[in-house]
Amino acid sequence: MTNPTGQRAPGDAAVDxxxxxxxxxxxxLRFPTEEWLAPRVHASGAHVYDVAIIxxxxxxxxxxxxxxxxxxxxxxxxxxxPEGKEGPWGNIARMLTLRTQKHLPGIELGLxxxxxxxxxxxxxxxxxxxxxxxxPKGDWQEYLLWYRRVVGIEVSNxxxxxxxxxxxxxxxxxxxxxxxxxxxxxxDDVFARYVVLATGVDGNGAWYTPDFISSALPRSxxxxxxxxxxxxxxxxxxxxxxGAGASAFDNASTALEAGAAEATVCLRRxxxxxxxxxxxxxxxxxxxxxxxxxDQWKWRFMxxxxxxxxxxxxxxxxxxxxxxxxxxxQNAGWRGVKMVPTPTGEEIEVATSGxxxxxxxxxxxxxxxxIDLRLRPELATLADDIALWKDKYTPAIGDEDPxxxxxxxxxxxxxxxxKVAGAAPFLSRIRNFTYxxxxxxxxxxxxxxxxxxxxxxxxxxxxRSLFLEEVPRLYESFTSYSIPEMTGPVPFDxxxxxxxx
Length: 501
Ligand SMILES: Cc1cc2nc3c(=O)[nH]c(=O)nc-3n(C[C@H](O)[C@H](O)[C@H](O)COP(=O)(O)OP(=O)(O)OC[C@H]3O[C@@H](n4cnc5c(N)ncnc54)[C@H](O)[C@@H]3O)c2cc1C
Fold this sequence. Notes:
It is a single chain. By secondary structure, the protein is an alpha/beta fold. It contains 15 helices and 18 strands. The chain folds into 2 domains: 32-96 and 136-204 and 371-468, FAD/NAD(P)-binding domain; 209-274 and 311-367, FAD/NAD(P)-binding domain, CATH 3.50.50.60. Helices cover 30% and strands 20% of the residues. The strands form 4 sheets. Strands 1, 2, 3, 4, 5, 6, 7 and 18 form an 8-stranded mixed beta sheet that branches. A 5-stranded parallel beta sheet has the order 9-16-10-11-12, covered by helices on one side. Strands 13-14-15 form a 3-stranded antiparallel beta sheet, with no helix packed on it. α1 runs antiparallel to α3. Bound molecules: flavin-adenine dinucleotide.
């Protein structure tokens, strides 16, 4: 069905039509498709993947798609979440829309028919796109699922990678198969030559609850923004949220929309942050070439970025300020929390840096995640060998920054590096495409604005490494190549005096 301007009416049919167009585009650009990597088998007889990707979110999907364009097809993505529930979008993301602009490209491999704009327009129509401010998170998740199906990327969902170890000449990935409810049902191992960590913003650490909270309160009385929170259970409750970023505002709004009596967002700083330095970073030169700077410049730029908390976007602020019971207090960092008795039971008392004390029923720590590789089960065996910035860079006096120092120190192609040379040379075969890559590579893993350049850089780097390993075998194959191109009879000139051969 088409509308009066001849365009296909928005909806399923239009989305299917777009999928067909995108596949046609991929087909037009398919050369070269010939497999060039030799299959490998583990000593146990098990299959060896060329690349195992941990995480089936936007990052993992984009890396897989880019590798396939280099005919690196012996790859596998593992994601512990069910299909269509990868990433934060349908889980801990409590905003209504993405925080980034709608037109950001990133995973479409340069093909307009694979862009979020093309998908949204096919789904809802041109006018809907024109009117759209930012992409609703549910639509983004649906776009990712559509993208994955169109490009033909397989993901082993419900599969958690519980440990990665080096096994002689390949990695052994210990897998735990999870049922829909997340309980482990089986375990097995797979093998891979290269591993990509596409495990999300918290992929190099964990969502963080300050110790003074977790040590003072029963678990039922607090959560952090990375937890699954039963907001319905907070109906009629008084909530206090620690944090100044988007998650703090979004969690407070979600609690009030679910019926909480009040939600107070507590900002540590005396002045609310209004500037988001990441917007300045959205420049082609900076996004593409940040990683080419020397350590000192990387450190200075990142130190400046991290000196800001990324503020909540205006629409998160507007959403909260429209809700009854919403409050934002500045200069209210938390000094301590404790349970105090009340005539009807117990409540939480929060002592703030501004001197005021809050009395509430539930706390939400929305202070982000901590970078600490030892907190990642899949990296537990390797973490102590992985170099961090503190192992490789000594900032000038006064320029120290413990947060930056805790980030992994990556090579020029997202590879992990060794703390001690020679102790774990295989680490370079692990490519880090989480937010942990930011200090070394700039906005890249787990940031939409960094995907446009970073995805190809990482994929090209892996296919380059695979190629260089294969050179001796490729040379053998090249020098033994003997498939004639010209097979037909040669029209020899038989005129008298002309030699036949
Ligand atoms: C609440 C929230 C809102 C955000 N909003 C924006 C935004 O608007 N714009 C923007 O640019 N960025 C945003 N980000 C940052 C970032 O873009 C997103 O986090 C995005 O999801 C990152 O994509 P990813 O593929 O790197 O990771 P994810 O989408 O998080 O995917 C990682 C996947 O890895 C899987 N996984 C992790 N560990 C394992 C394991 N051991 N075994 C198997 N599977 C594993 C997880 O199940 C998950 O599905 C937001 C982040 C959060 C948390």
